[in-house]
Design brief:
Low-confidence stretches: none
Distance between the termini: 43 Å
Strand content: under 5%
Shape: globular
Helix content: over 70%
Structural class: mainly alpha
Number of domains: 1
Number of strands: 0
Order of helices and strands: HHHHH
């Protein structure tokens, strides 16, 4: 858990240094974004049904209902992340300036690599189902 706090503190310091609005919320959403993309990649690699992404959703639901059900599923996760990685704890952890500089380059790179992986896996799934 110490490692996770350290990573969150580094991300928090990246946003604080850039003087962005609400660095704590951006840190939480960055962690959630990484986690969601990795979870989606695992679902795609293991060929699990999309039901695992939104357990409350059904195929016959409208887009609005699907969005509402997704919010019901994922909002508690974001709140849990905000409670676990609260602002006071992130401000207390001392972070090396070298790590912050490295994170400034790695955060966008990780997002791009995860996104490219998702695209490749979606193309693979389309080819396997005969859609492409």
């Amino acid at each position: 858990m110490k490692f996770a706090y350290r990573i969150a503190a580094i991300i928090y310091n990246v946003y604080t240094e850039r003087r962005v609005d609400i660095p704590h919320i951006r840190t939480i959403m960055t962690l959630f974004g990484f986690g969601f993309l990795i979870y989606f990649i695992l679902i795609m690699i293991l060929d699990l049904p999309s039901q695992y992404l939104n357990p409350l959703g059904k195929q016959e639901d409208t887009k609005q209902i699907t969005w509402i059900k997704s919010a019901i599923v994922y909002t508690p996760i974001v709140i849990l992340l905000a409670v676990v990685f609260n602002k006071r704890k992130l401000e207390i952890i001392s972070v090396n300036e070298k790590h912050v500089e490295k994170a400034k380059k790695l955060i966008p790179l990780i997002f791009v690599l995860l996104f490219i992986t998702v695209i490749v896996l979606l193309i693979r799934a389309g080819i396997q189902r005969g859609l492409i």
